[in-house]
Amino acid sequence: MRTPSTPSAPSDPSDLSDASDASDSRAELSSEARNLQWLLTNLVEEVPGLHSVAVVSSDGLLLLSSDPGRLQQRAGQASPQGPKGSSADLATVVSGICSLTVGAAKLMDGGGVKQTMVAMAEGSLFVMAISDGSLLGVHARPDCDMSVVAYHMALFVGRAGHVLTPELRSELRQSMESAQ
Fold first, then answer.
1. What is the spatial distance between Cα 26 and Cα 34, in angstroms, rounded to a whole number?
2. Cα–Cα distance list, 167 to 70, 120, 174, 179 (Å)
3. Which terminus of the chain faces fewer neighbouring Cβ atoms within 10 Å, N or C?
4. How far does the chain reach from its first CA to its final CA, in angstroms?
5. What's the gap between Cα 176 and its chain centre?
6. Alpha carbon of 40 to those of 103, 107, 163: distances in Å?
7. Is the pTM of this model over 0.90?
8. Which class for 16: exposed (0-12), middle (13-18), buried (19 or more C-beta within 10 A)?
9. Which is more confident, 149 or 165?
10. Is the pLDDT of residue 177 over 60?
11. Angle, CA 46 vertex, CA 135 and CA 18 arms, to 5°
């Protein structure tokens, strides 16, 4: 396992066929979608303490998820209930928090919201804007290193922001819908 403080450059995303929660539908996805899935998988593997990670469109739809509950559901097993096991719940919360913080920033003439962090007794929630209006949401354990989480989220946003074209968002939505 790599240390969280030393991010690695992406090697070949196609080498990680078992690491993706959409591994059985990888052949159907474009190379851009597979690369984005690989970046998300890499984020989850490099940062200790993450429960789940989701990429959400500007209109609140789940585009990409690390949710282990989806793997179990696709295998015919019962998926866990609640925010720790539901990527749809995380997407909903991320979208709602974004709406609240954008409204607050407008009221306070604070400019664009770049990142939001919510610290809870039993975990943390991080939301970071991606260049196209999409959002990256991370639900982490309470003992996570918040600076490492924020750093790796910024790396993901920097690497993925220019890739999320309207065509790719549409492809990812369709992939998520067909996986359910």
1. 7
2. 24, 36, 11, 18
3. N
4. 31
5. 13
6. 28, 33, 13
7. no
8. middle
9. 149
10. yes
11. 90
Unique residue bearing structure tokens 């282990």: 68
Q: Which of 120, 123, 117, 121 is nearest to 147 (CA)?
A: 117
Q: From the CA atom positions of the chain, what is the Rg in Å?
A: 16
130-160 burial string, b = 16+ CB within 10 Å, else e? bebebbbbbbbeeebeeebbbebbebbbebb
| 118 beta partners | 125
Structure tokens at 172: 């990812």
Query: pLDDT digit string (tens) for 56-81?
Result: 998 889 999 986 544 344 444 444 44
pLDDT of residue 59: 86
Residue closest to 139 by CA, chosen among 55, 68, 56, 53:
53
Q: How many CA atoms lie within 13 A of 81 on its CB side?
A: 0
Over the chain, what is the mean pLDDT?
79
Amino acid at site 1: M
Percent above pLDDT 70 for the chain: 73
Q: In the prediction, which pLDDT does 175 show?
A: 86
